[in-house]
Design brief:
two-stranded antiparallel sheet; about 325 residues; mainly alpha
């Protein structure tokens, strides 16, 4: 079907919102926000307020989301969620930066202990990472090829130094600085279990599988936040493995029977709070994040459950600075 919706001026956008049931008491303020963020982005935050209709057919219930909004929906609902989500994205970017740098540092330290070029040595990795497939290449070789391309594209002065003086061959403690988080995560996933477990333990993570899963989730939410996409009620496509209560007591609530079944962004925030506390017990990121979540702009359509959280979770030790965990 060919797209046929017309272009609308800002005034027409406000009129359309009003016709569909959104109360707009201050047109000037609404126009200013629409010029800043755009109609499409703003209505994404209004989507949970859309009216719906249930129909029964052959014993099954179907829900159709309508173009109109629930009674009582206001423009301020969208504005409040936009502001909340902006602050949430900034906190995520900050937290990811701390975790990413610490992970790079620990990887370089542990791998470099055996050899400056341990990342090139097949014995550093598990068999599935180094075994060649039907195309004659291994995941390790593909990773190295991507890393070499990243080196050649880099304009960092230290990379140019290694390029001219050492034929481009870089030790892991220098190379790690130019890798993307996804490449760091891929490197970690390929490590032998003993090496990967040693690194995970420094972050209070008991197994390689958990650490690998958490790094993938952290990379996912980082990409969402970095691209300014809506984060607060996103269902995680790359969800973190939930540890048992015995493995990580502070995260036991994630797998409790009363926990929401949906993997909301809270799961990623909780994992980040746990890891960050092992990096620095003095960092107040968990407290600031919990404070923001307590300010969630609740309404008849939304509450903290849209983030996959229960309100009483925010009073747990996980969100308190220096809650018994010792930094590396």
């Amino acid at each position: 079907m060919e797209y046929s919706k017309p272009w609308l001026s800002v005034d027409e956008q406000i009129d359309q919102l009003h016709r569909r049931g959104v109360h707009v008491p201050d047109r000037a303020a609404a126009a200013a926000l629409l010029r800043e963020v755009g109609y499409y982005r703003l209505t994404g935050y209004l989507y949970p307020f859309r009216a719906s209709m249930r129909t029964e057919s052959a014993g099954r219930t179907a829900v159709t989301v309508l173009d109109t909004y629930r009674a009582g929906t206001t423009f301020a609902d969208a504005a409040a969620l936009l502001a909340f989500d902006r602050q949430l994205r900034l906190l995520v970017i900050e937290g990811v930066e701390r975790i990413e740098v610490a992970t790079r540092t620990q990887l370089a330290h542990v791998l470099g202990r055996s050899s400056p070029f341990a990342h090139e040595d097949a014995t550093t990795f598990n068999d599935s990472f180094t075994t060649r497939d039907g195309d004659g290449t291994s995941a390790h070789e593909e990773w190295l090829d991507r890393v070499r391309r990243r080196q050649s594209d880099s304009d960092e002065a230290f990379v140019a130094h290694f390029r001219t003086k050492y034929d481009g061959r870089m030790p892991i403690w220098a190379l790690i600085e130019i890798l993307e988080l996804g490449q760091v995560s891929r490197l970690y996933g390929g490590l032998r279990n003993d090496t990967a477990t040693e690194i995970a333990a420094t972050f209070g993570v008991p197994t390689k599988k958990l650490m690998q899963s958490w790094l993938a989730t952290i990379n996912y939410v980082r990409n969402v936040a970095a691209h300014h996409a809506r984060l607060f009620n996103r269902k995680l496509v790359v969800a973190p493995r939930r540890p048992t209560a015995e493995q990580v007591p502070l995260l036991a609530h994630l797998s409790a029977e009363t926990a929401p079944k949906q993997f909301g962004v809270y799961s990623a925030l909780a994992v980040m709070a746990h890891v960050l506390a092992t990096v620095s017990a003095d960092d107040d990121w968990p407290e600031r994040t919990a404070a923001l979540l307590r300010q969630f702009p609740e309404s008849t359509a939304l509450d903290l459950g849209s983030m996959g959280a229960l309100p009483h979770w925010l009073s747990g030790d996980l969100w308190v600075r220096g809650s018994g965990r010792t930094p590396r």
